[in-house]
Write a structure and sequence with these properties.
Its main location: membrane. The chain has 40 helices and 25 strands. By secondary structure, the protein is an alpha/beta fold. The strands form six sheets. A six-stranded parallel β-sheet has the order 5-4-3-6-7-8, sandwiched between helices. It has a six-stranded parallel β-sheet with strand order 16-15-14-17-18-19, with helices on both faces.
């Protein structure tokens, strides 16, 4: 090796003794000594300050004689007067340094960003220096610009190091923090270089560790705002820092060689090659083209694989997940021109979304030109992803929160047609679920007060919180679907007309005729008997194909009375009109169910029809007397060339736009029919609140009915639980033709809202003597929690017991009851689906067992009676043979069981042929009206979106009628206010003109003249003349030629459908009371004790 002159001297290539020496140990020792001295000083200071004489808390002032606990031990007195001032100065300096380094202040943010930039610049200088020898001398006659700049950076790092040391609380652990270690191995070697005029590449690669602070820097600059972005940046910087730092260390040891063999085994590697080696090693590939040749390099690779590989293996899946998720479910929704879109959020699962889509995108809805945008915080599971792929042209999924305005902006909520919020109907904590739903409404209304919101709630009392939202307004189409209120309302109406819940559930669920026909085609051979054209399932499926549609009425109906139009539609259009929507004299929109002859059809009237699809319902809109004469087939009734139809088309197009003028519907009077007469507002009647009720009869004071302040419900003074409790056998003896409600809750169970069950059964359009007694059978602790909501309704009693006890069921005279209702507990303590309805299924089977036992008991009594009368005949066996040939006398009590899980319906009947995979509406218990599940209410969300008045119609038919004033009073809690002075006209409006659901038998009453084999069409028209609107038939179930006590529902049968002698007719009839025709004072008051 040549001996260069001082001008050409460049590191170890010079043979000068001073230049060719190796001083790497001196640079490394400077760092290690700094670390050792720093930690040693911390230990020394802690040791000295913990001496007894220097501990302020243990020091005692010496006495006059110089004695004391520490007297004479320590020559330094730390209890001088300026001791507290010194401590205060130290704390002030610490606070000052903390504020300088804190990102909370502007200077701190600038310092942090500057520190990051200078660290990266220092790392860049290091990368340049890797192309030079590891250790080299610095000639005095010419300077090194990069070395000079790097020294300036290190002096800056030294100042920051001092500030961090002052601000750090635990001085010991300060020396082992990442930033401190980086400074220790980069700053002291700088001073060594200045002293000996030599530089060593060393561990300057550690400066790249500043990358771990990049997420914090980007947050300060507001570049990163999402949690996924912050997490992704953190993972990437950790992996990159580990790569680059390891590459620098590997570059050092391989280019230096092993010191114990005088560095003779070194190899020349660039920094880029070292990065390549670490990447290949970290990925566990190891091509073998570049391998370590030094022992130090080999040892480093071993620890590198053990340490950094673990970091890489744990970080890479998360990086891939975040990157992949961001590509699929992030981004911004781009509205399609000419198409509306809705935002669906809340409880997003495969079941909830699939049930919603099944009804929303049904083919019977004609053309659904609406895209669906789902917004949820969770990752969709595999089932949900498969559902997205099946409906990718209609649906998009975005991951985000409804509480984040930026996420609402991403899904273009401002441009959407509506926002639908789904709830978890099976939540074991319904109040918590409803609270979350209401908070979502608040967030959406805060983002856009005029956005139309349709929300599902579980509890009825939760919807009162929606009234507190200032922007909640039905004028924008806002509506709430209360699961508990609708569910219990359906079940309550079933107590009056068994099977009615099945009929209504099938009407608002979308099912096409092709779907019902496919059931017949795909049926297995054992089912052929009841799926034949004359089988019960075929009749039932025909009714399942009907839905409720809303359509504007043709001008051809103008001037007709409502019954005339119903008849015209039934005969000529094959449509069943059940209600009309008109504006009253107060310009308020009202829905009139089964309208009477005083209702005249005029322009703008909208009809509610039962029809198989929307196309058939449009016949009512396109019907023209001039073009569609009696000879025209009903299938050919379509848009004609009349000018009137063309002009009407424009009005029809404007009819169903939700946001034109931001007014969808006016204030609706639910179920009230009005004659043209002045009426007081409910608020005025409430102001005149004086006494308990309204008298409609001239019976004794004891039997006079009383009503609440709205006149919509029967009322009685508040009773205590003790007054309503049935304890003695004497009271139980009078329980006949009553309704038994089985409850399974306890003092800790969530409330189900029993008031929603009682109110439809206590509507004022029932005569008081027709009210059936209601007996709640269950834990009295549970019923007490809801008693204040039902204590003002008459004929409501409690029996403390268990529905699973046969003795308790017999004690409430279940054999003589009119209906037994078994409500689900839904305690949420069962993970397995089959166990979710264990209480209701066991109670249902218990009731059937009681009926069978009661039948055998009755048989024994008959035999005993005959034996007492004629022992010889009994011994001859004639009575036994007679009873055996006639079969066991059957005692049947109508019942309906609520289920949480649909598949559990298979356990209710052991004599049906239902498959576990059969849909609920196709099972025998549901077709017979003996089973009900909340899943049938899923279709109400889409039905409400397409027609806001459909929910009002259903709510009116099943709840007995209500209004905003009543809901506000009920929301405040306490007693239900009694009635007031009400005019005679108002009485007729509230009572006579309100419809009730009824079930009439063939051969009696209005249908007395009809016999078996008569056509349903003639029966319908005859009933219409009496103001009764027929909806369907409840027929005995016939399987394999044998009749049973079960019945099934036939909705809106054809006109030529033959009726049977045992049929019962579902119908809507008006209130009838002979006393209403008598002379009544203009105002009638009551103050009765019921």
């Amino acid at each position: 090796m040549l001996n260069h002159s001082i001008k050409r001297c460049y590191g170890p290539e010079c043979e000068d003794v001073v230049c060719t020496g190796r001083y790497w140990w001196l640079f490394l020792a400077s760092s290690l000594v700094t670390l050792a001295v720093g930690t040693g000083l911390v230990f020394l200071v802690r040791f000295i300050t913990r001496l007894p004489c220097l501990n302020r808390r243990r020091h005692h002032v010496a006495g006059p004689d110089g004695s004391g606990c520490c007297a004479g031990i320590c020559p330094i007195n730390l209890l001088e007067k300026n001791a507290e001032a010194e401590i205060h100065s130290i704390e002030a300096a610490k606070d000052w340094a903390t504020r300088l380094l804190s990102a909370q202040s502007r200077f701190g943010r600038i310092l942090l960003i500057t520190y990051f930039c200078i660290s990266m610049a220092s790392y860049a200088i290091y990368v340049i220096d890797t192309g030079k020898p590891i250790e080299r001398c610095l000639p005095a006659d010419r300077g090194d610009l990069l070395f000079f700049i790097d020294n300036i950076f290190n002096f800056f790092f030294l100042g920051v190091f001092i500030f961090r040391f002052i601000s750090w609380n635990d001085k010991f652990w300060f020396w082992f923090s990442v930033n401190t270690l980086v400074d220790i191995f980069t700053i002291p070697p700088t001073f060594v270089s200045l002293i000996i005029s030599r530089t060593w590449l060393g561990l300057r690669c550690l400066r790249i560790m500043i990358l771990m602070q990049l997420p914090e820097i980007l947050q300060l600059l507001r570049v990163l705002r999402t949690s996924n972005g912050i997490k992704l940046t953190s993972l990437l910087t950790i992996v990159a820092g580990a790569w680059l730092t390891s590459a620098g260390i590997y570059h050092l040891v391989e280019n230096s060689g092993d010191p114990w063999i005088n560095f003779n085994n070194s190899q020349s590697l660039t920094y880029g090659q070292c990065i390549y080696i670490t990447v290949v090693t970290m990925s566990t590939v190891g091509y073998g083209d570049l391998t370590p040749k030094t022992t130090c390099g080999t040892i480093f690779i071993i620890f590198f694989i053990l340490g950094v590989l673990a970091i890489f293996a744990s970080a890479l899946p998360e990086i891939v997940e975040i990157v992949g998720k961001g590509n699929k479910y992030s981004g911004v929704y781009e509205p399609v021109k000419g198409k509306k879109h809705i935002v669906v959020c809340g409880h997003i699962t495969y079941d909830s979304v699939s049930n919603f889509l099944k009804d929303f995108l049904h083919i019977d809805r004609d053309v659904v030109n609406v895209n669906i945008v789902l917004l949820d915080t969770t990752d969709p599971d595999l089932e949900l992803q498969a559902l997205f792929r099946r409906h990718f042209t209609k649906m998009r999924y975005f991951q985000g929160s409804v509480f984040n305005p930026s996420d609402l902006q991403r899904v273009k909520l401002n441009e959407s047609d509506a926002c639908l919020i789904l709830c978890n109907k099976y939540s074991p904590r319904p109040d918590t679920e409803d609270s979350g739903q209401i908070m979502r409404v608040i967030s959406i209304k805060n983002f856009n007060p005029e956005m139309r919101v349709i929300v599902q709630l579980i509890q009825d009392h939760s919807k009162t919180h929606l009234l507190n939202i200032p922007s909640w307004n039905q004028a924008y189409g806002d509506d709430v679907i209360c699961i508990a209120a609708l569910k219990l309302g359906f079940i309550a109406q079933t107590c009056l007309a068994p099977g009615f819940s099945t009929m209504m559930a099938n009407l608002f669920a979308m099912r096409s005729s092709s779907e019902t026909q496919s059931v017949v085609k795909n049926a297995s051979s054992p089912a052929e008997t009841y799926l034949s054209p004359e089988g019960w399932m075929s009749h039932y499926l025909h009714g399942c194909g009907n839905e409720i549609y809303t359509e504007s009425l043709s001008r051809a109906f103008d001037g007709m009375t409502a019954p005339e139009m119903v008849k015209e539609c039934f005969i000529k259009l094959k449509l069943l009109l059940i209600a009309v929507q008109q504006n009253n004299e107060f310009d308020e929109t009202e829905i009139i169910i089964n309208p009477g002859p005083y209702i005249t059809i005029n322009q703008g009237t909208v009809g509610f029809f039962l029809a198989p699809d929307a196309t058939e319902a449009k016949r009512a809109y396109y019907y023209c007397r001039a073009c569609h004469s009696e000879g025209v087939e009903v299938e050919k009734i379509w848009k004609c060339e009349c000018k009137e139809c063309e002009s009407l088309d424009n009005n029809h197009a404007k009819k169903y736009t939700h946001k034109d003028g931001h007014k969808l519907l006016a204030m609706t009077r639910l179920g009230d029919h009005h004659e043209p007469a002045p009426a007081r507002s409910p608020s005025a009647e409430l102001a005149e609140l004086k006494i308990q009720g309204v008298n409609l009869s001239e019976s004794s004071d004891h039997d006079r009915p009383a009503y609440d302040f709205t006149g919509l419900f029967h009322w009685t003074p508040a009773r205590t639980v003790e007054d309503a409790l049935i304890t003695s056998a004497q009271k139980r003896r009078y329980l006949v033709n009553h309704i038994i409600v089985c409850l399974f809750g306890d003092e800790s169970s969530p409330l189900i809202g029993l008031r929603n069950f009682v109110m439809p059964l206590r509507a004022s359009n029932f005569k008081y003597e027709d009210l059936r007694t209601i007996v709640f059978l269950g834990n009295i602790k549970y019923i007490e929690r809801e008693w204040d909501k039902i204590m003002n309704f008459p004929k409501v009693f409690i029996y403390n017991g268990s529905p699973l006890s046969r003795a308790d069921m017999c004690n409430v005279n279940v054999h003589q009851s009119a209906m037994c209702v078994i409500l689900s507990a839904n305690l949420g303590d069962s993970v397995e689906q089959g166990l979710q309805d264990k209480e209701t299924i066991l109670s249902s089977l218990n009731l059937k067992s009681i009926m069978a036992a009661g039948a055998h008991s009755r048989r024994s009594k008959i035999i005993a009676a005959y034996a007492a009368e004629s022992p010889t005949r009994l011994n001859g066996g004639s009575i036994k043979r007679s009873l055996s040939t006639q079969g066991t006398p059957k005692i049947t009590v109508p019942m309906i069981t609520e289920l949480v899980n649909d598949v559990n319906v298979q356990f209710l009947d052991d004599d049906d042929e239902d498959d576990p995979d059969t849909e609920l509406y196709l099972t025998q218990p549901f077709a017979c009206g003996t089973a009900f599940a909340v899943s049938v209410l899923d279709s109400l969300m889409s039905a409400t979106y397409f027609n806001a008045h459909s929910l009002t119609l259903i709510r009116t038919m099943i709840t007995g009628g209500t209004n905003a004033d009543l809901e506000e009073i009920l929301a405040e809690g306490g007693e239900l206010p009694p009635g007031v002075q009400i005019s005679r006209t108002r009485l007729k409006e509230l009572l006579r003109d309100r419809c009730t659901v009824a079930q009439l038998s063939i051969g009696t009453g209005v249908f007395q003249q009809f016999k078996e084999g008569a056509a349903y069409g003639s029966l319908f028209l005859h009933a219409l003349e009496s103001g009764i609107l027929c909806l369907g038939i409840y027929r005995n179930l016939i399987i394999a030629g044998k009749s049973s006590s079960k019945r099934y529902v036939i909705t809106n049968p054809p006109q030529d459908f033959d009726i049977l002698a045992g049929d019962r007719i579902f119908c809507l009839k008006h209130f009838e009371d002979l006393n209403m025709n008598k002379e009544i004072p203009e105002t009638a008051l009551i103050g009765s004790d019921l």
